[in-house]
Amino acid sequence: MTTLLIRPTPIDSESATGYLLRLAEANGYTSLLDLDLLVSKEPKLEEVAGIGTMLATKRLSKLRGAVTRFRNLKMTDPGGLDQQYWNGRRPRYCPACLAANSYWRALWDITLVTACPIHCVELCDSCSKCDHPLSWKRARLAACDCGAYLGDRSVVPAQPECVAVSRYISSLLETTPRGGIPAIQEPLDRLRLADLLAVCIFLGGYAQNDVRKPTKIADLHDVSIATSFARAAGDALEAWPSGYRTLLRHLVSKDGGQASSNRLAEWFGYFYTALYKRFGDRQFDFLRDEFESYIRDEWSGQLAERNRRFSKSTRIEHKWISLTIAGKTLGVKRSVVCSFIERGMLCGQLHTTATGRTSGTVRRDTLEALRAEKTHWLTLTEAREVLNLSRKGAYALLRSGKLHPVSGPTIDGRSIWRFSASEVIELASQEWTDPESSIKPHTGGPAHASAKGGRTRQLRRRQIVREVVA
Ligand SMILES: [Zn+2]
Ligand SMILES: [Zn+2]
Question: Model pTM?
Answer without folding.
Answer: 0.73
